[in-house]
Amino acid sequence: MTTENQYAMQNPVTQYPQPGFPEQPQPAPGSVHKLKPHADHGETSYKGFGRLAGRKALITGADSGIGRAVAIAYAREGADIVLNYLPEEEADAREVVALIEAEGRKALCIPGDLSQEAFCQTLVSQAVQGLGGLDILVNVAGKQTAQKAIADLTTEQFDATFRTNVYALFWLCKAALPHLPAGATIVNTTSIQAYQPSETLLDYAPTKSAIAAFTKALAKQVIGQGIRVNAVAPGPFWTPLQPSGGQPQEKIPTFGAETPIGRAGQPAECAPLYVLLASQESSYITGEIFGITGGTSIA
Ligand code: NAD
Ligand code: MG
């Protein structure tokens, strides 16, 4: 599924599929190929304008969903990219590699589990080595597993969600910062859940609050070095995260219907914001959280 031309003026309400998705359980971490309808990651539509020419970017969660759209957009804006994802997501990631290479940009794959500190350190050092430096760190990877009752939320799940969403962010930023030059940027991914948490996301929602606070605090700490840190707070986006356990399955048919715009966002609609926050165009923006929610307030 893709829109003909995302740059043509049109009604955003009807630009993409409306709620009424079929229930479609798939095992986590999920694949873009099992989404019905398919999601738009900008494969055929995103146009680059040289905003990230020559930049070196590390993107986590780059195989699918929001991270896939960001990787495609960054390559079209002229960046070389290291993609991180889980080993079982190799097939989705290979398609992103092909799209990056089609732009004449470098795509290096470093799959692995971000919930392990040692891997986070290895990922950063291999990315720096492979790209010849690092200018942009984009933290997109995340774990979301809905549980209807606190009694069903195990310590193991609570721990895994925090390790993947919060600890990995800390480990990756800590490892990357010594390599980042003035002008470099970090873009994190929080959520509407930091502001309006769902009753089924007792572990996930607080990880997203932590990411928002971490972003603001780190931004103050490193702006003196000329490094900016911001975060994107998506509302409901049509990605494998949701039908693979992120939502109770019965919520999938109406996913996104509760937003003022009345539909789920498509990953392609997120990518331009990640581009802006990584590029020099956002030189006076740091420590900010940007909602991209179809109209639901993050205040
Ligand atoms: P997605 O499933 O396409 O991407 C999530 C990615 O996280 C996976 O592809 C996987 O590569 C990665 N990941 C998960 N656990 C990992 C681990 N232990 N090690 C390494 N990688 C791991 O879904 P998405 O919706 O594009 O999610 C991207 C980000 O957007 C997440 O941080 C998510 O919390 C956030 N977000 C999504 C929505 C939404 O509605 N889809 C809303 C708000 C925020
Ligand atoms: Mg994936």
Largest sheet: 7 strands, parallel
**Which structural class do the helices and strands define?**
alpha/beta
- State the end-to-end distance: 32 Å
Tell me the name of the CATH homologous superfamily: NAD(P)-binding Rossmann-like Domain
**Residue windows where pLDDT falls under 50 for at least 5 positions:** none
Beta percentage is 5-15%
Shape: globular
Whole-number tally of structural domains: 1
Q: What string, H for helix and E for strand, traces the elements in order? A: EHEHEHEHEHEHHE
**Helix fraction?**
25-40%
CATH architecture tag: 3-Layer(aba) Sandwich
Neighbour order of strands in the largest sheet: 3-2-1-4-5-6-7
Compute the average pLDDT.
Answer: 97
Helix count, DSSP H or I runs of 4 or more residues:
7
Number of strands: 7
Radius of gyration: 18 Å
CATH class label = Alpha Beta
Present as ligands are:
nicotinamide-adenine-dinucleotide, magnesium ion
Protein name: NAD(P)-dependent oxidoreductase
Region (Disordered): 1-40
Family: Belongs to the short-chain dehydrogenases/reductases (SDR) family.
InterPro entries: NAD(P)-bd_dom_sf (IPR036291), SDR_fam (IPR002347)
